[in-house]
Specification:
The structure holds 2 protein chains of 2 kinds.
Chain A: H1 18-45, H2 77-91, H3 93-102, H4 104-107, H5 116-143, H6 153-184, H7 205-221, H8 231-234, E1 276-280, E2 283-287, H9 289-293, E3 298-302, E4 315-321, H10 322-328, E5 339-343, E6 352-355, H11 357-361, E7 366-371, E8 374-375, E9 385-387, E10 400-405
Parallel strand pairs in A: 1-10
Antiparallel strand pairs in A: 1-2, 3-4, 4-7, 5-6, 5-10, 7-8, 7-9
Helix pairs in contact in A: 1-2, 1-3, 1-6, 2-7, 3-7, 5-6
Chain B: H1 49-53, H2 56-76, H3 81-116, H4 123-144, H5 149-156, H6 163-201
Helix pairs in contact in B: 4-6
The chains are: A alpha+beta, B mainly alpha.
């Protein structure tokens, strides 16, 4: 048996071949395109062009060309797009690994370059493979709160995605003819992926695809439940925010960051100590929690959806409309401006967040005081928290201390 | 009376069957790189400029791809260029030169061991649950190993230490299910063998 991996005979698996690679390639072509689009959508959902506090990538330049005002409906919009982004990313892991396995002999093929174009294509493949693994790794580590990557998740995952996608498009275009040929003629197994001296098969090509699909299915059934409350969440056995809910009762739904972990002490949220400061048009209004309870209260059924891909079903929030708070400092509710919301929280990436005027004006956007019929608990943002339809979870600021209305 | 049919001789090709339907490795067309030009001697074969450069369309596509990757890349590397580049390249190197040899080696050891004990047909029944269990561990290792357990508990208010037990449980179910399938298959094969033997030994029915 040849010892050098650059010799074609070194690779023995009879499963490798253009058909197997093409099938996996087509699955990834569709899947990664959906991942890229839902990723860009999530980036837009933060409204990064609204205010520096929302923008973790201030030097994005042309890469923010497509940004738009994030809508407030349907209320499950971000829940859907980000749930798809993360769940699909997890589910595609075995497909990505199988695809890389199926072409690994090419890594060692000699000569290293046949022409200038071929040399450039191989450099591009480093961006493709390195970029793909970088994106999957940072994403999967981030949803597990394992922040070992070198820097803030947002710029790494966003710029990394563009590097990866640039190489991905080139690769898809260059390999499309070969992939289509292989799919059209599944029995015409030729080329440098096919083992010249194959070992005795232990599994058919379809069987191998079945194993890959089985891996995806297993990841799906142990992950997808984290986008729903109750019994479905319990099926998400190995996933963060899967399993049972934290506690029971009205506040028994998922928490992104507990009060203790953000350094919110009980002494600063008492009726005597806590005041909401509302500013705008040169005016400042200070309100205690009982002052807020004296304002007209409204209800809205809205979910919480996190960038990490988990979400809750609709919770029943009750509180003061954001546009009514704007009216306290002299704005017309129908033409209320943007708002900068600041939390009692002293550290953390989103201790302050900006909301756009369309979000402020929506009648379902509340400064919530109650959830599911009971006063907010400290972990859900007591004394008051923002809840906005269809917005990413971190823009629903908890433990609100200041709100500044005006064009940002 | 029919005229005898005159058969023309036909050309018979040797049966071309997979995997022989390819050139043997030695006879593959090999690109010859021209040697250093000797004074007064013309090289026997000369590659055209096109063969050195490649397709212009491909070059254009790759140039566009590199332009976009470069635009995003300088921003990606803006903060801690060395660590990010290390992660980027390291991910590919770690996968291709560590992870793939590791699991391919494990698979070869498994098939070899089962071959030696004459149980080749067991391969899939061990390989599939092992691969699925390893996949779950690969994706969720920060939670399964408990390295983020404290941080996870303090942030989310959820217990962070149940993941190892759940992973072991899923692994046990996968191997248990696979073993049950194998027992079922062995039993069925044995039964059909018995039936076939019994049918052979029975005296032929009178017609």
């Amino acid at each position: 048996m040849p010892r050098s991996p650059s010799s074609p005979a070194f690779w023995r698996s009879p499963v490798r071949g253009p058909w197997f690679t093409a099938v996996l390639g087509v699955v990834l072509l569709g899947g990664i395109t959906v991942l890229f689009v839902t990723g860009l959508v999530s980036y837009a959902a933060y409204n990064p062009d609204l205010s520096p506090v929302n923008d973790k990538t201030p030097d994005k330049g042309l890469l923010g060309f497509y940004l738009f005002s994030w809508p407030t409906g349907p209320v499950w919009l971000y829940r859907l797009t980000q749930g798809v982004h993360v769940t699909l990313g997890v589910v595609l892991v075995p497909v990505l690994l199988a695809k890389l396995w199926s072409v690994v002999p090419k890594l060692f093929a000699l000569p290293p370059a046949r022409s200038l174009a071929h040399a450039l294509e191989r450099i591009s493949l480093l961006l493709l493979v390195g970029g793909g693994l970088f994106e999957f790794t940072t994403g999967i580590l981030n949803v597990q709160l394992d922040y070992v990557f070198p820097g803030s998740f947002y710029p790494l995952h966003f710029y990394g995605a563009w590097v990866f996608f640039a190489a991905f498009v080139a690769h898809a275009v260059l390999k499309m003819p070969a992939a289509l040929r292989a799919l059209r003629h599944p029995h015409d197994e030729q080329g440098d992926l096919v083992a010249p001296e194959p070992a005795e098969p232990t599994v058919s090509r379809r069987g191998a695809l079945g194993v890959v699909g089985g891996g995806s299915l297993l990841l799906f059934v142990t992950t997808a439940g984290r986008s729903f409350d109750g019994p479905l969440r319990r099926t998400a056995l190995l996933t963060p925010h899967g399993g049972p809910e934290p506690g029971g009762g009205p506040a028994g739904f998922q928490i992104n960051k507990t009060a203790a972990s953000r350094g919110i002490s009980a002494s600063e949220t008492t009726e005597e100590a806590w005041r909401l400061v509302v500013r705008g048009r040169g005016r400042t209004v200070r309100l205690s929690r009982s002052d807020l309870l004296g304002l007209p209260l409204h209800s809205a059924a809205l979910p919480i959806a996190c960038v990490e891909g988990w979400s809750t079903s609709d919770q029943w929030w009750r509180g003061v409309r954001l546009r009514d708070l704007a009216a306290l400092v002299g704005y017309e509710p129908q033409t209320a401006p943007d708002v900068l919301v600041e939390s009692l929280q002293r550290h953390g990436a989103f201790r302050s967040a900006a909301l756009r005027d369309n979000q402020v004006r929506d009648p379902r956007s509340l400064l919530a005081l109650y959830v599911n019929g009971a006063p907010l608990t400290p972990d859900h943002g007591h004394p008051a928290r923002v809840i906005v339809p269809a917005a990413p979870g971190v823009l629903n600021t908890k433990w609100v201390a200041r709100m500044t209305f005006g064009d940002l | 009376m029919r005229r005898p049919v005159v058969r023309r001789p036909t050309m018979r090709w040797p049966a071309m069957r997979w995997p022989a339907m390819r050139w043997p490795a030695m006879k593959r067309p090999v690109l010859r790189w021209p040697g250093p030009a000797r004074f007064g001697a013309r090289p026997a074969t000369r590659r055209s400029l096109r063969s050195y450069v490649g397709s212009p369309l491909q070059l254009l596509l790759l140039a566009c791809s590199f332009a976009l990757a470069g635009y995003a890349g300088v921003r990606l590397l803006a903060d801690d260029w060395f660590a990010v580049a290390l992660w980027f390249v390291g991910a590919a190197v770690l996968h291709d030169l560590v992870l793939v040899p590791l699991y391919a080696g494990a698979d070869r050891a498994l098939t070899g061991a089962l071959d030696r004990v004459g149980r080749r047909e067991w391969t899939l029944y061990v390989r599939v649950p092992a691969a699925l269990s390893a996949l779950l561990l690969l994706v969720w290792f920060p939670l399964v190993t408990g390295q983020v357990a404290d941080h996870y508990r303090s942030a989310t208010g959820l217990p962070g230490d149940g993941f190892l037990a759940r992973w072991l449980l899923i692994t046990a179910v996968l191997f248990g299910g696979s073993a049950a399938l194998l027992v079922l298959r062995t039993w069925r094969t044995a039964r059909s063998d018995r039936l076939r033997r019994a049918a052979k030994e029975r005296p032929p029915a009178a017609h």
